Amino acid sequence: MVKGKVPIKVGAVSTSRKSTTTAVKSGTTTPVAAANQGPSKPSMRDVPSCSGCGCYITDEVKALQCDKCQSKEGWRCAECLNLPSTVYDTLVSESGPPLRWFCEECDDSWKKPGVQDIVNMMSRFFEKLQHIEGKLSEVGALGRRLEEVDEKLNLTSDAVSSKIEDLRSKVEGMTVTLQKTVTAHDKADESQLISKISMQEERAHKRLEEKVDDVMKAIGSQQLDAAKLLEGAMKTQNEEAHEEEEEKRKRKVNVIVHGLKEPGAINSEDRVIEDRDATEELLHIISCDTVSVRQVTRLGAQPTADSAAKPRPLRITFESEGSRDEVLRKAKNLRSKDGDWKRVFLHQDLTPRQREVRKKLVQELQERRSKGEADLVIVNGRITKRRV
User: Fold this and answer.
1) Residue 146 falls within a domain, yes or no?
2) How far apart are CA 297 and CA 314, in angstroms?
3) How many angstroms separate the CA atoms of 35 and 59, rounded?
4) pLDDT at 120 (0 to 100)
5) Is the domain of 27 the same as that of 85?
């Protein structure tokens, strides 16, 4: 809303000194008149004020109201907007340009992430989810190994119990035998027989205790070995996970190019120059001329002069991850090009573990295609239907 008592379509270009809002057009209701026009008029507390300097927006004040929220707090006077009177009058006229003006809060709401940012964020989320699933699989394998160790310990415990029971039966049998001997030999010295029995019982108990100690030591050793095994496995897993994350960080600005002609120069510096020229031409073909390249590197040993092998892959390192994503997104333009460009394809620089996962996905993709499934593609580590 702007100065005037009848709703008028108005507009302004925001050049506020206090915010960097978007140039917009305002079309709202009329400001409230001054409070001293009679008892039927609203009081000054009903008159909106400028969100910049705080002055009341009366009929005499040139001001704009936010075209989005149209709230009482969404006013800004022409002086705070640094808006000359001539420009203001032109903008609020019926023939003025169709612009809109937003207050700072509404303008900030326009700065939310775009669709591509959300897609990139979801892509990273799926990569993390895939990594977590891999870890859960490894933890499950460790759990199964611990179950095997626990099962062995249970079998050992059962064996110990069985041996103890056998020894106890033997001791009882020896005692009964000695008692029968005492009964059968009335003239034998009873005290000597009892002493022999006691000595044999002590020896039997001692042997039993030694056996139990040996078994418990064996069980303790197995438990210690199992704990060390688990600790070592977890440590190795953590180290591998850290190394994997570090490899992903190093490769996140790289793209691997296949099918790009091998340079013909003999000198290594001239070969690098040829690869850079070929890279610039490739980026031009896919409409990525503004993308900055940090480095280009051929992967693998240089082919011999008489070698008929296919060109080595070329790794392109960009200045940012966003540049890499833009190049990968536009690489599909190569399909429609003529000549050798049809044989050139690009993909992101994968770690050895990622390549192994992708290899399995490719095998599964080929099997499913052989069974009649169509329009299948690999996206974010999963096989899905191609979008039409």
Assistant:
1) yes
2) 6
3) 11
4) 66
5) yes
In a domain, 149, yes or no: yes
Residues of the chain whose pLDDT is less than 70?
1-43, 110-121, 178-191, 193, 305-308, 388
pLDDT tens figures, 183-234: 665 545 666 767 777 787 788 777 877 877 887 778 777 777 777 777 787 7
Residue 27 · residue 4 · CB < 8 Å? no
Residues 16, 122, single domain; the answer is: no
For residue 314, give its domain range: 254-349
CA distance 282 to 344: 9
- How much is the mean pLDDT over the chain? 77
The DSSP 8-state label assigned to residue 54 in this structure reads: -
Burial zone of 67 (CB within 10 Å; 0-12 exposed, 13-18 middle, 19+ buried): buried
**Looking at the structure, do residues 239 and 331 belong to the same domain, yes or no?**
no
Give the global pTM. 0.41
DSSP 142-208: HHHHHHHHHHHHHHHHHHHHHHHHHHHHHHHHHHHHHHHHHHH-TTS-HHHHHHHHHHHHHHHHHHH
The residue type at 259: G
CATH number of the domain residue 79 falls in: 3.30.40.10
Q: Note whether 16 and 81 are within 8 A (CB).
A: yes
User: Residue with structure tokens 């927006």?
Assistant: 57
pLDDT value of position 3? 38
